[in-house]
Amino acid sequence: MSDGSRGTARDWCDLRVVTYNIHRCRGLDRRVRPDRIAAVLAAINPDVVALQEVIGPGPTGPGHAEQLGAALGMGWVMAPTRELRRHQFGNVVLSRFPIREHARLDLSWKTCEARGAQRVAIDLGDVGLLHVFNAHLGTALLERRYQAPRLADWIIDRHVTGPRIVLGDFNEWGRGLVSDILAERLESIDLYPHLKRRRTYPGFFPVLHLDHIYFQGNVEIRRISLERTRLSLVASDHLPLVADVRIRAAR
């Protein structure tokens, strides 16, 4: 999807970004198939992907993160939040562009399942660095009340300069605390002008809209879509949310 070379390469870069909770590569048919997730993503042809619920490396093998990166020909970096059957488990960002920086934020709250976010600085060449944030928040209201302000403060850190795109599974299906806090400080993508069907969970018959995209800086949203195919409907319990964006260089 990247086509910055079609215009003045120093001025802008077009990207296709995706947020996708892959549910440990376990489909609605209960089969664990990383190859199926890879096929869904290959059909989208993304430049940057934010994944949640990913099994990483462990003593018994490389894990799904490495398999997906190899299948798609993309570099990747993982921010594990806990162990799952002796393997790392958490969030992953994949990129066709070089990854220059990586940082993690622990968002775990009390005895709830460990949660976290990651920031990945992606080098777009003459356009500069794009900071991609990948988050997976908790399912409980009090948990998200703790997580939302900490995530927002981390995203707008003044020591991090350049455009930002925030993706992930926020486990909030309506207008709520998380969306209110993030929308105060970032631009929120309104799905209504773009999509007739906006719900992403569960995949086969989605009734909730849990996956969101926010941005800040020289980011232009050109198109939003949901990857709703026969394969994506069973590959995970979420559908991939896709955004075509244009990143402009700072003037």
Can you put this structure into words, describing what you see?
With 251 residues, this protein is an alpha+beta fold. It has a single domain (13-246), classed as Endonuclease/exonuclease/phosphatase (Deoxyribonuclease I, Chain A, 4-Layer Sandwich), CATH 3.60.10.10. 19% of the residues lie in helices and 36% in strands. The protein has helices at residues 34-44, 64-72, 141-155, 177-185, 232-235, and strands at residues 12-21, 48-55, 75-84, 87-95, 99-106, 116-123, 129-136, 164-169, 187-188, 211-216, 219-226, 241-248. The protein has a six-stranded mixed sheet, with helices on one face. A six-stranded mixed sheet has the order 5-6-7-8-10-9, covered by helices on one side. α1 (34-44) runs parallel beside α2 (64-72). The chain is globular and about 50 Å long. Residues 198-208 have low confidence and may be disordered.
Topology:
Elements: E1 12-21, H1 34-44, E2 48-55, H2 64-72, E3 75-84, E4 87-95, E5 99-106, E6 116-123, E7 129-136, H3 141-155, E8 164-169, H4 177-185, E9 187-188, E10 211-216, E11 219-226, H5 232-235, E12 241-248
Parallel strand pairs: 1-2, 7-8
Antiparallel strand pairs: 1-12, 2-4, 3-4, 5-6, 6-7, 8-10, 9-10, 11-12
Helix pairs in contact: 1-2, 3-4
